[in-house]
Amino acid sequence: MALIMARPWKDPRSGVWHLRQRVPQDLIHLKGQNVTLPVGGISAAVKIGAIVQISLRTKDTREAKERHSKADAALRKFWDSQRAGPIRLTQKQALALAGTLYDAFAKGFENNPGSPETWAWVQDVNERAREGRLGRAALMIGRRNAKAHSMEERFGPFADLVVAREGLVIDADSRMLLIKAVAHALDSAARKLERNAEFDYSPDPVASSFPAWVRPQAETSTTGSTKGITVAELWNRWSAYHADKKAPTTIERAGSGNLDSGISGVSA
């Protein structure tokens, strides 16, 4: 049985509070994998060992308790999902999950979208990913393998983000379906933001095409629903992807102006 730490643990050297929880014996095989937990409004990944320990990034006792409660609830939900095993998403569920990304991008960057060229460039890179011409995939033999590799490199991190945020475990076919849905959502968001950058703020006809996300009944947790994806989370993923690539400087300006904007209410 897991030894659950009901309260945050304070590092005696730094004074920073942490979540510390022993991994349940029946899930010890997860050692070496990562789990993503909410900490102070962002999603932080931590490697699973004999225990799960993650900094709550605060020395304030009251704030630490609040952050610990949310992180602990997410970790419990992760354990429950692992025990239940992978679920299979329907196409509607995959599109609904991807829609949370669309909502976060489309709303998070619309006030200051940058230049139209920025989002035209994003669509171009997305298209190259679909065609298997992105990164190392361009050198691969076999069109199918090249496409799969490009799609994984471009859209996989975003698919993992929404899955981790919901504490879901999905099967391989569902992940492939979700990656395709994410590609569609990010393309749609880029087109919308390109229009915004061209001073077109007419009603968005695409937003309503995404179904509302509702967690599968078997996965419903009593620990409460998760919050929406923040632009900061998206930007961290975006920056990591482009760390060794030359993205337009307009994207950097767009991101820096929106990092503090949290998009909430995109998950049910």
Q: Keyphrases for this structure?
A:
268 residues; mainly alpha; 2 domains; 7 helices; 9% strand
Structural commentary:
This protein is mostly helical and 268 residues long. The protein folds into two domains: 9-84, no CATH class; 91-208, no CATH class. The chain has seven helices and five strands. The strands form two sheets. Strands 1-2-5 form a three-stranded antiparallel β-sheet, with helices on one face. Strands 3-4 form a two-stranded antiparallel ribbon. Strand 3 (34-39) and strand 4 (42-47) form a beta hairpin. The two termini are 31 Å apart.
Outline: globular
In this structure, how is the largest beta sheet organized?
3 strands, antiparallel
Percentage of residues assigned to helices: 40-55%
> How many strand units?
5
| Total of helices | 7
What's this entry about, in short?
With 268 residues, this protein is mainly alpha-helical. Helices cover 47% and strands 9% of the residues.
Describe the protein's topology:
Blueprint: E1 9-10, E2 17-22, E3 34-39, E4 42-47, E5 51-55, H1 61-84, H2 91-108, H3 116-130, H4 143-166, H5 172-197, H6 231-241, H7 249-256
Antiparallel strand pairs: 1-2, 2-5, 3-4
Helix pairs in contact: 2-4, 2-5, 3-4, 3-5, 4-5
